[in-house]
Design brief:
Elements (H helix, E strand, L loop, with lengths): L4 H21 L16 H12 L4 H14 L8 H32 L15 H9 L11 H11 L1 H10 L1 H13 L11 H15 L11 H22 L5 H25 L3 H6 L5 H23 L4 H26 L1 H7 L27
Helix pairs in contact: 1-2, 1-3, 1-11, 1-13, 2-10, 3-9, 3-11, 4-6, 7-8, 7-9, 8-9, 10-11, 13-14, 14-15
Length: 373
């Protein structure tokens, strides 16, 4: 089964847009610079809009794309052993390397008296806490966004069961997983973020039943407007009630995180027709590099900022982004050019440069588009 070239380009576009949005979610702040203090007025609201509403859609949307690409060829073309073997190299191994490297960097920094209070302290952690720091057993790993790769790999391990249930009782399966994803404070244990399991399963449904991904494109303006309006309303509710929000607001946030994925997909329809959309869709493995590397760099910038003595948080917010994205783009290109074998390992084999040719099912792998909090 081939993948429509428009759909393929839009998937690549969504990867870089949503992963860049995830960066906003992880920009550090402390109690003194919390947006819920209202110190900076409209700027604080805008931070909440980006980090607590709009870009919370990133993980569910990318999870759905992963499930779709994994089963777009149907159950008959799915090889479990081959998939697990491949994903161990493209999802699990990058998780272990990037998270392990940051773990070692934290150990070294703390030993030198740097970073105390900014990062977890493995030196005084229990064995159980160390396992979580390294592997995300019970909570986020030290490189926080990489919990997504951890959860994605779990979803891949149980994907045959999910696909079987969806092929036989799709409504019951998806409804049950949706309830689990939406209800606040309902632990699931096997995944850290419950929305990933539902969205991944929804992607399986779309792939197995060959749902037309462009069927709603004509409603793109309405979908985009609803996404922005609902994100603004949710951000206002969170801003007024935060930092501890009641369960009904948390329920709305969970709902928007899942439903908003459709809005972002509809956004990709007009955006892919623009020059910038086309360029972003051809950034290739840069999105995965940004995903894995951005959090440690943000923490480093936050530590340096803490030593500067400057208290105007908006300056840090803007400056961190201005430094981060160019650095990630340059380091990505440099590593790819100077150490291609290392680059291939760090990106899970995501080294093929995008082309304008219509890709086949064998050309685009699910992990290429699966890339948070």
């Amino acid at each position: 089964m081939t993948v429509d070239s428009n759909v393929s380009s839009r998937i690549n576009l969504m990867r870089i847009v949503l992963i860049s949005g995830i960066v906003f979610v992880h920009i550090p702040f402390d109690v003194k610079s919390s947006p819920f203090n209202g110190t900076y007025g409209a700027f604080d609201w805008f931070r909440v809009f980006l980090t607590e509403a709009l870009f919370r859609v990133g993980v569910p949307c990318l999870s759905a794309i992963s499930g779709y690409l994994l089963f777009r060829g149907g159950l008959e073309n799915f090889s479990y052993l081959k998939t697990v073997r491949t994903k161990s190299q493209t999802v699990l191994l990058p998780f272990l390397i990037w998270n392990g490297a940051f773990f070692l960097a934290i150990l070294a920094a703390l030993a030198l008296g740097i970073g105390d209070g900014y990062v977890p302290d493995p030196w005084h952690a229990s064995a159980r806490e160390l396992l979580t720091h390294l592997f995300g057993i019970e909570d986020f790993p030290v490189n926080v966004p990489l919990y997504f790769l951890r959860d994605l790999f779990v979803c891949i391990l149980i994907s045959p069961l999910l696909a079987l249930l969806i092929s036989r009782v799709p409504l019951i399966t998806l409804t049950a997983l949706l309830v689990v994803a939406l209800v606040p404070e309902l632990p699931l244990y096997i995944v850290l973020k419950r929305s990933i399991l539902f969205s991944f399963s929804l992607g399986i449904y779309v792939g197995l039943y060959n749902i037309d991904l462009k069927a709603l494109d004509r409603f793109a303006p309405v979908g985009i407007a609803l996404l922005l309006a609902s994100s603004a309303l949710l951000a206002t509710a969170i801003y007024l009630a935060g930092p501890q929000v009641p369960d009904w607001i948390q329920l709305l946030r969970n709902t928007l995180a899942i439903a908003g994925a459709l809005g972002f997909w509809l956004l990709s329809a007009p955006l892919i027709k623009t020059q910038i959309g086309q360029r972003l869709s051809k950034t290739g493995s840069l999105s995965f590099w940004i995903f894995c590397a951005h959090y440690p760099i943000l923490i480093l910038l936050w530590i340096v900022w803490g030593k500067s003595g400057i208290d105007t948080y908006p300056i840090f917010f803007v400056l961190s982004l201005a430094l981060l994205f160019p650095f990630l783009a340059v380091s990505n290109a440099a590593c790819r050019r100077v150490a291609p074998r290392l680059y291939a390992i760090l990106t899970g084999g995501r080294t093929k440069k995008p082309t304008d040719r219509t890709p086949s099912a064998g050309t685009i792998r699910p992990e290429l588009v699966s890339q948070q909090r």
